[in-house]
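Why show two proteins at once? Because comparison is the fastest way to build intuition. When a single record is shown, students tend to memorize it. When two are placed side by side, the eye starts asking what differs. So, the first record is below.
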Amino acid sequence: MEELLKKYWEGTSTEEEKKRLLQLLEKREVRHFQKLKSEFELNAYSSSNSSKEEKFKIILKELHQKISEQKKKEKIRKHRFLYKIAAAVLVIFTIGFVALQNSNSNLPEISETQLTVIENPHQDKMMFFEMEDGSKVKLFPNSKIKYDLGYGNQNRNVKLIGKGYFKVAKNPELPFVVESKDYYTTALGTAFTVDGRSDTIQIQLIEGKIVVNSSDKSKSRFSAIYLSPGEKLIIDEISDRQRHFQPQKSAKVQSTYETSAMEIEKGVEILKFKKENLSEVLRQLSKIYKKKITYNADELEGLTFTGDLYIQDELNHSIQTLCELNELKFTEKANEILIEK
């Protein structure tokens, strides 16, 4: 029967095959669907037996109703109505299967069919674009995102390969979800970066609030981890460890490196800033890393930075973060970094 349905769906059925399919739907649908039920349960996500039984009974009941209606039609309309029956079989069964998947999986999954793919193929250039919902994305070199046709209406789920920065448009009805290596970062309206280019996945929150979850497929499993502004999560799949860098709330924020709090937490130095002039942030970085940073002071006028910079990161990583947030560009030379608009 599966082959007959497939041929009818493709428009290649003969008149004899159409009649045969109609007979099967009218007289043998119960036995056929018992077979489909077994396959359905084998492939579905785990759930209670009672839950699966109830869902399947609903699907079967709707199918029977369709067939009962068909018997009342005139014979000359059988072939035209067969399309509706075949469509009902496929659509109802698909809806039931998807519903069961969704009810038993607490994390969203992005189908690999009918995906929109945006890729940054450049080796040294950032790509900037805006999503349909107004969310802004900055893709790092050799990175890409994928999302399905339901984005913006049914969901806001994107799959990231590489590294991306996301400035999320607020929409309480549709959380923004980034999947990277089977880990999920969920936000309502915020700005954050996700970097999955190596054996570690690094997630840093710039503003707002996000929650990070592992999935059944994740190599490193953990309960939900919430991040606040300035916090950073590093997931190491090799050692199966998660490092959550959480600045001490009692630390006093200062405006110069000489007196600012260099916090030591889990062996990591953190440089904190709150609405600090960008030129001052760059001055401190230049002193810490002992590298000249050149810029036009007029171009940086009025630009500030709030957040944490991690001293264990390479200088160009911190510079890149600052430039991304302020729509600046930078060029790295042997003994100097040049920043410009």
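Second record. Ask yourself what differs from the first in the token line.
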Amino acid sequence: MVLYRVYSEPQLRDYYTTVCSRATLFLVAIYGLVLVPPALIAYATNNFWRTTGSYREQPNVHYLNQSILLLGGEGGGAGVAWSSLPNYVPPPAIELLPEPLNITISEEDTDSDGKSENLMLVLDFPSPTLNVTSVHLLLFFRVQLSAYSSVDMQSVAYVSHSARWPHPAGSGWAETLASTSVDPSGPVGGVTATTLYSTPVVSRGKTTN
């Protein structure tokens, strides 16, 4: 049997609520449970929200042709000193060595990456008049980082050599091999230039040990 529409009446229903309804609070609670705990767990484990990061980079290191040398005598007595710094003043009771007979400086780039890996420094002095038992050497370098952070700073390498038996006065030599690494005491920042370590190690005034 076919049905025919003989009358129709539209019906409109409006529902009103406030922002702080139970449905809204329930929705906020659901979103909070879904988003907040995973974010806190990721932050606590440093797997998602990283606060600090570490990396290794070979710095660009250049010797500044600045050094301080101290030769110690037998029995811990007074020694002699020399420095390439023009304003260097040795400590009391320490005599200045005469100028070296020969200074040889060679920086070697072993892997051809534009960065020096080795430094050979040869200081040839007239033989001192004391029996040398220890050699202490300070070398000043310029260190630059550029891969992740822009850092330009000066650093000091300390080399110490001592012998149980002294080298007789008028003869003898000492050879020391050392390796250096840069380990900042704190984070150096992001990709922006860092000026925290830009202060020169040696001032322009008088320099003493």
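One difference worth noting in the second protein: The first helix runs from residue 22 to 45.
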